[in-house]
Structures are given as C-alpha cells and as structure tokens.
Automatic annotation (TrEMBL):
Protein name (database record): Alcohol dehydrogenase, propanol-preferring
Cofactor(s) named in the record: Zn(2+)
Superkingdom of the organism of origin: Bacteria
Assigned protein family: Belongs to the zinc-containing alcohol dehydrogenase family.
Any matching Pfam family: ADH_N
Species name: Micromonospora humi
GO molecular function, one term: zinc ion binding
UniProt KW keywords: Metal-binding, Oxidoreductase, Zinc
Domain Enoyl reductase (ER): 10-342
C-alpha cells in the first residue's frame, strides 16, 4: 500500500509498504480521511530520536473497518469509525480514570506518534480506539478526533470559568481554533474575542460566531484590552492555539485577575510565572495556567455527538495522498484555512 512516512527527521516521503495485518484485539481500518495537524510539523522538526523513524504520520483518522483481528467483538467490515489516537499504558492511575491523555507511563503514546499513523491506505489500530460515527463523512469525522477533541477538552477544563457573560479570548483560528469557536458557541454563552495574524482566519472566525476579531500584531494587547478591560480586569479565559512567544506574551497581558490561561499550541514560546503583586506582574494574581493535551475517549464521543448534531463542522481543504507533502508545506506557510484533510 502507499503510505506517507517520516523516513528521517524532517523528511516526509510517499513510499510503498506492506499492508499491515491486525493482531489480536486490533482492527485493519481502510483510511477514509486523515487530518494534517500542525503537530505533525513539530514532529517532523523534532530532534532525532524524539519520535521513531521510519513512521507513517497522521494521528487524526477516520475510515471503515476492513478486517477485525482475532478476538475483536462489536466491529464488522464496512463499519464507519473515528480513531481515538492516544494509547496510554492502561494501568496507571490516570489511565484507570479514563484520562489516557495524562498517562504517567507513556506520555506521548499514540497512533502516528509512537507507531504508524493514518497517512496511508490502511492503518492497524487497537479495536478499543474506535468510535462509531454513524453516517458522518470521513472528511468530517477525522478532524473531530484532534482538531475537535483537543479544544473540547480545553473548554471542559475551563468550563467553571466560562459562565454566561464572561469573556474568552481565542488566539490562533486554524485547524483547532476554528473548531474551538464552534464548541464555545455550542456549549457556552461567553463573549468571544478571536485573534489571528491572518485576515482570512479572522473572516472565518466572524462567520463561526466570534463576537470580536483582532488582528495579531504589536498593538494586539491594547486592542484586546479595549474589549475585555484593562488590568486587573481582562478575559476570564484565554485559549492559545499558537504557543509562540508573541501569543504567550499577549495571553498573559490580557487575562483577568483570577482568570485562566490554556496553552494548547506548541510553537516553542515560554510563559514566565513570577508570584508578585507589584508592577509589572508576569501573570495576574490568582491566574491559573493549564497545558492541555488532546482529550479523553469519553470526550471524543461527545465531540462526535456534536458533529453528528450539525453543531461542529470542520472547514476542510482536501488533498489526495500523493499531495500530502504539499499540504504540509501549505500548512507551514499559513496557506491552509480550517483543516487540510488528506483522502487516500
Ligand atoms: P494551524 O496551523 O491550523 O493554525 C494555527 C493558526 O494560528 C493559524 O490560523 C495561524 O494564522 C495562526 N497564527 C500563527 N502565528 C500566530 C501569531 N503569532 N498570532 C496569532 N495567530 C497566529 O495549527 P493547528 O493544527 O490548529 O495547531 C495549533 C497548535 O496546537 C500547534 O502548535 C499544534 O502543534 C498544537 N496542538 C496541540 C495539541 C495539544 O494536545 N496540546 C493538539 C493538537 C495540536
Ligand atoms: Zn494533532
Ligand atoms: Zn497510563
């Protein structure tokens, strides 16, 4: 079969590999669609040894069951499924609570992270990773598994502060951010301020229900403070889907006293935290900082329910498998709006 693999750090290639066979408890899935996540670029850019090579990339997967392996119950050929990408140890304190995204044994274990992913015609996954998606098209189901799940989990973590009438600043309206806006609209009554460098992303944000849009730049903090109030007031919650130095600096300067910063993006910035009350504080008093990772299987089921109810819809640009490397280059240039989805 054809597969797009990271053959060495930084190298992404279309290759021919044997079609894998499902072992006990596993399923061979025919890939219907796989989302191109910005994290794949971070995986490609990571130092040698951080991730296995060669490895098929792609951790945002939906498709149809081709062959259930020995001992698999409840899945038949032709069943449509989305893949929960995390594979925790299953035995630690976190995994036993269903929080595999907090596994204390294999913190980055997953499909397309520590074993072959879905940028291929077929992928083998543990049957326990599959969730039914009904008649959702795979190009819609795939983005739910990460671009949908990760912001959903972040919003769940912030939910006690997302009271009606509070304000949430969302930075980075790309694959994850444009889903975050819809999740906020569907599940809260907060006022939303969307921030991005790209005018096209801000247009999309407006269409998806953001109440205010602010173009990122040197005056972004002032413009956001006009909307959310100056310190010690500010945004109750800030979701940063970029994580670069400028966005982290913006985030900490617009969050309210007692607010919450959720740092989802992995662009390499640093958030200084110094517990002082005098000026200039690095973060306001009583601020809480969270570094969310992906989400739980139970949350994915809820995200799929939102998708099936028509409340969460990925804005997708599709590419054939052979053009996956071009799709990632477009993502790196900032030329993808919503989510790039590869259809093998
Ligand atoms: P994306 O490329 O689709 O979207 C990024 C958006 O941020 C784009 O709209 C871009 O214009 C905007 N942007 C870039 N620089 C900016 C800046 N300085 N100020 C404002 N906006 C800016 O990426 P994505 O797939 O949505 O992923 C977003 C980030 O989240 C990545 O770093 C990715 O690795 C990370 N991620 C984290 C998790 C997790 O579990 N923590 C899960 C998935 C993705
Ligand atoms: Zn991802
Ligand atoms: Zn575990």
């Amino acid at each position: 079969m054809r597969a797009v693999r990271m053959t060495a750090p930084g190298v992404l290639e279309l290759t021919e590999v044997p079609t894998p066979q499902p072992g006990p408890g596993e399923v061979l899935l025919r890939v219907g669609a796989v989302g191109a996540c910005h994290s794949d670029l971070h995986i490609l850019d990571a130092a040698a040894g951080t991730f296995p090579t060669p490895m098929t990339l792609g951790h945002e997967i939906a498709g149809t069951v081709e062959t259930p392996g020995p001992g698999v119950d409840g899945w038949s050929p032709g069943d449509r499924a989305a893949v929960y990408g995390i594979i925790g140890c299953g035995r630690c304190r976190a995994c036993l609570r269903g929080e595999e995204n907090r596994c204390r044994v294999v913190p980055l274990g997953g499909i397309g992270l520590s074993r072959d992913g879905g940028l291929a015609e077929y992928v083998v996954v543990p049957a326990s990773r599959l969730l039914h998606v009904g008649d959702l098209d795979p190009t819609q189901a795939a983005p739910l598994t990460d671009a949908g799940l990760t912001p959903y989990h972040a919003v769940e973590l912030a939910r006690p502060r997302l009271r009606p009438g509070t304000t949430c600043v969302v930075i980075g309206i790309g694959g994850l951010g444009h889903m975050a806006l819809q999740i906020l609209v569907a599940t809260t009554a907060v006022r939303i301020v969307a921030v991005d460098t790209s005018v096209a992303a801000l247009d999309l944000a407006g269409r998806l229900g953001a109440h205010h849009v602010v173009q990122a730049g040197p005056d972004a903090v002032d413009k956001i403070r006009e909307l959310v109030g100056p310190p010690p007031d500010g945004a109750d919650v800030v979701l940063d889907f970029v994580g670069a130095q400028p966005t982290l600096d913006t985030a900490r300067q617009v969050v309210a006293t007692g607010g919450q910063l959720l740092l989802v993006g992995l662009a390499g910035g640093t958030l200084p935290v110094r517990p002082v009350a005098d000026e200039p504080p690095t973060v306001p008093l009583e601020t809480s900082v969270v570094v969310p990772f992906w989400g739980t299987r139970a949350e994915l089921q809820e995200v799929i329910a939102l998708g099936r109810a028509g409340r969460l819809h990925a804005d997708v640009q599709t590419f054939p498998l052979a053009e996956a490397p071009e799709a990632y280059e477009a993502l790196r240039r900032g030329d993808i709006h919503g989510r790039a989805v590869i259809v093998p």
